[in-house]
What we know:
The protein is mainly alpha-helical.
Amino acid sequence: MNFSQKNIFVTFLFILFIPSLALSKEENFDLWLNNLKNEAIDRGISKEIAIKTINKIEILPNILKEDRQQSEFIDNFTDYITRNISNRKVRIGKNLLKDHKKLLNNVEKQFGVPARYLIAFWGIETNFGNYTGNYLVINSLATLAFDPRRSNFFRNELLSAIKIIDQKHTSFDKYKGSWAGASGQMQFMPSTFLEYAIDYSNDGKKDIWSNLPDSFASAANYLSQIGWEKDYIWGREVKLPKEFDYYDAQLGTSKTVNHWKIKGVKKANNTNLPKSNIMGSIILPSGKDGPAFLVYKNFEKIMQWNRSIFYALTVGYLSDRIINISQMDIRYLKERKLSVKNILEVQKKLNFLGYGNLNEDGIMGTNTKHAIRLFQKQNKLPADGYANKKTVDFIKLSSKSYINRNIE
């Protein structure tokens, strides 16, 4: 094989194994759509619906902007809860609890999920159905599935969405939701719909978009199936003693209520915790100077709905407000904002100091909080995992001192 023949052979292999680089964007998309059709049919979706639906798909560039956008400042707990809960929302929630009392009681009896939680999820997800999203779900999911960043996840959701249309629960043009593909009164992703949605009204359709019986029952079925404990609450606000070891305040540390009681933890109104062997964790969403919560197994179930401590606390708090049992007044919550730039700097310096191998992404995730907690503990600061000004300044100073020592 001469030099020219080798070049031709290499070029052939390059085109064969990397088609996305050899084809135009439009040709590559057409090939991707054709493969999607075949996979949909292989999954049992009717050929007619697969072809009809996929032929309508359009890529929406603004979806990728939504997926990529990063605000200058990250949300802290104060921002999050005050944005999602207002006195008006609480009043509406109370009224809706009364308006749908019979339906909600029936759902609660069957699935074991108290009505106040369903109202709270409804309020947080779609403002009680007032905003369920205006994006065509198929187009949203196709855009995210074609994009390489999280293609596997969204491809599965896209195929699940096409299956929902094939089962005649909705149609291409009526299937609308958020930019990320969640839809309905309770914002179900397609795969969640297929596994947990219920035709509670017995009309032949699982309608989570305009049918409240189906919406409430589907949400309750989901929570019940993932292990909701009907006889227990999500958690409660508590007060911590002055000598409390803040290193223990994390979801990964679970102890009995009796243990926390012996440690001096009390209810928010300063009365004693009940005697109980139920397991619970102390969490401090705003650090040691903010509110403290003792959360139980149902809190973890709320987090399976949305993997965010802020989200789960907000749902729990709204559910309490709806039945007038919350002690916390969010009007007095105050927190310092941290910019993405500040978090990136903290992550870089923690990596430099040897506190883990953190992704330097500007996101205050679990690993970053754990690294901060370790730094605080080693440097005899309150180890609450919270990046307050004192901790951030100390991290910067320690990094600078380390550099100066090594230069000398």
